[in-house]
Amino acid sequence: MTIFAERNNMAEKSWYIDWFNSPFYHKLYFERDEEEARSFICALVDQLQPAPGSRMLDVACGRGRHSKMLASLGFNVTGFDISPDSIAYAKQSVQDDNPDFYIHDMRLPFWGNYFDYAFNFFTSFGYFKTRREHDNAIRNISRSLKAGGTFVIDYLNVHYAEDHLIYSEEKKINDAVYSINRWHDEDHFYKKIMVNDPSLKEPYNCTEEVAKFSLGDFTDMLSFQAMQVKEVFGDYKLNPYDVKKTPRLIIIAEKKENEEGDKEKRLYSDGRSSDALS
I need a labelling partner for 30 at 20 to 30 A (CA). Which of 2, 14, 23, 93 fits? Predict the structure, then answer.
């Protein structure tokens, strides 16, 4: 099976494929305060102290908001996302090749031993049907990093979300009305979204499903892929994580130094060995 056929098989009938390509998804989540996102990026950069020109990977980059902010600070940024429409939008607003954007599924290999930093922002994880698929994604992120590289994942705090879940609400954005219902079980959070908009012949419906991954779950997944948790924060101002009191789970992990002959050889998913981004 080719890598492209595997991608199509994995994506088949997954709720997020159509939803992430929908303009209603972006209006609901991303037409928000840009200052909060920029403040978070600046706080991360102050915390991490990346060297000028560091190579950074934005995993599940969406329309590239965070990628562009990182690039504006002088870093060499690559973003990928499973949504073709999001990547097309991201590319339209870039004047040069930084950041560089690709359509890609995180469950499949990307460039290996190449990046100094990898980021996964805004709970852009936890959507897949099986734990194995999530492990595959973490493995590919780890392999994309150089030895000693850093991975930052920004996820919801499961325990806080359980205690503060808003079960039903309605939002009006421009002419669209979003009716939102939430619930959860032992393993997942669910959010059913119905969009009524004059441009639609009938309401648009989608049910999001996000896995309940705790700090312990991530510690195990990361450790199994040669990454060690170094710091944990609880909000976008990088205040300390509290299992009950903080809304986010922001983990900074470091890939272990070379083991068992793991060299700084750059490998690419299409078999190339040359440096495509030089």
Answer: 14
